[in-house]
Specification:
Number of helices: 5
Distance between the termini: 71 Å
Structural class: alpha+beta
Length: 187
């Protein structure tokens, strides 16, 4: 590579980093949300999906019915994602024995090469998934992090845009864990 190409790429990299820092500095410190937890009658089902897990195997929405699930879309390069990850680990560990799980979906370009180190660094105790090319939900994510709270019946109860605090999540998770499961009517 020519010296001028290296210099130009270095300048672009520095400029991109500066823009990223500026955006981060002016971002709100807490998540914007879609409002309070939706009433059960207003919730829509999360699309069914099955994705490869960083730890091996496959994680499926269908295998997790009956749990309250927090689906977190994130990336290793995202400063708000890095900031909220320790809180997501704590919230997962706090409620895991009560039928709750966080599941992270990495939107990194090459997750297999960067995610394992991130998972180890942050001691992520919850499943981390890699999206496939046909995973439609990833295409709907407009900003990182985006987090979706799903009730025991697989319905979206609340969406958080931006980093979300442990305190904000705790109240919503408690509410969903205390809801009585809907029992289908017998025919």
């Amino acid at each position: 590579m020519a010296e001028s190409d290296r210099a130009r790429r270095l300048k672009l990299l520095v400029l991109a980093a500066a823009v990223g820092v500026a955006i981060y500095a002016f971002m709100p410190k807490h998540a914007a949300t879609s409002g309070p937890v939706k009433a059960a009658s207003a919730r829509k089902a999360i699309p069914e999906f099955a994705l490869p897990a960083a730890s091996g195997g496959e994680w499926k929405v269908a295998d997790n019915r009956g749990k309250v699930i927090l689906v977190n879309f994130w990336a290793t390069w995202c400063p708000p994602c890095r900031r909220e990850t320790p809180e997501l680990v704590r919230i997962h560990d706090k409620y895991a024995q009560r039928g709750f799980s966080v599941v992270g979906i990495s939107l990194d370009d090459n997750p297999e090469s960067v995610v394992p180190r991130f998972v180890e660094q942050f001691k992520m105790s919850y499943p981390v998934l890699y999206p496939t090319a046909d995973f439609g939900m990833a295409a709907e994510v407009q900003s990182l992090p985006t987090t979706v709270l799903v009730d025991r019946q697989g319905r979206i109860a609340r969406t958080y845009l931006g980093a979300v605090s442990e305190d904000m999540l705790a109240g919503d998770i408690e509410q969903l864990l205390q809801e009585r499961p809907v029992v289908p009517a017998a025919n």
